[in-house]
Design a protein that fits this description.
The chain has 8 helices and 4 strands. The protein is α/β, with parallel strands linked by helices. It has 2 domains: about 100 residues, 3-Layer(aba) Sandwich (Rossmann fold); about 80 residues. The relative contact order is 0.11.
């Protein structure tokens, strides 16, 4: 049996691109499981349902590795659970080398495992770096007494935390705007200042 798994971080985000990719692979719509929540862990209702039904020889198809999750250790643990314990396969459409239905010899498995570990590490390292920038950015914003717009002075620490949640895809842009309580023009002005604090010359 072939299953498809789709994940977006918020209810506002659109999963159509992933659904189209799975449909083009011939995955039936009733065999696609969709979660609308953060990829920080695997405590997800639809994902758990899919794993529970998974049997030896079944295949899970996902568009990209970050749709599976964003936590390095947990991605590796789930990958092992699916391929070693359940003895099922995984196909990552955006990364053909991560297709356990192919090259099942020792070298193919080794290459696939190495690529997976590298990609998972990069994804996790990105999360760690953003969190570090968050702490440094909040401190810098406080020290500078940043003002976002005139004449009102905004809560730099609060806005920094909201923006970091947006970067982690825990909030959509619309939700971030709503939590900040500002209009679109003011939001973009605030974000411009926050980018300078977080990324400096990189933005």
């Amino acid at each position: 049996m072939n299953y498809g798994y789709v994940r977006v971080s918020t209810k506002e985000q659109n999963e159509d691109r992933q659904l189209i990719a799975l449909d083009e692979c011939g995955i039936r719509i009733d065999k696609i499981y969709t979660d609308k929540q953060s990829g920080k862990d695997f405590d997800r209702t639809e994902y758990k349902k899919m794993i529970k039904r998974l049997k030896c020889g079944d295949v899970i198809v996902i568009k990209s590795i970050d749709r599976l999750g964003r936590n390095y250790e947990e991605i590796l643990n789930q990958w092992r659970e699916i391929t070693k314990v359940k003895k099922a396969d995984i196909v990552v459409l955006d990364m053909p080398i991560l297709d356990t239905t192919q090259n099942k010899d020792l070298l193919g498995t080794l290459i696939s495992d190495l690529v997976l570990q590298l990609l998972s590490y990069v994804a996790e390292n990105e999360r760690v770096n953003i969190r570090q920038r968050q702490a440094e950015g909040i401190a810098a914003a406080k020290a500078k007494g940043i003002k976002f717009g005139r004449p009102r002075k905004y809560d730099a620490e609060k806005f920094m935390e909201i923006y970091i949640r947006f970067l982690h895809q825990e909030l959509s842009q619309k939700e971030a705007m709503k939590e900040m309580g500002v209009c679109k023009t003011t939001y973009y002005r605030i974000v411009k200042e926050l980018k300078k604090i977080l990324f400096g010359d990189l933005c």
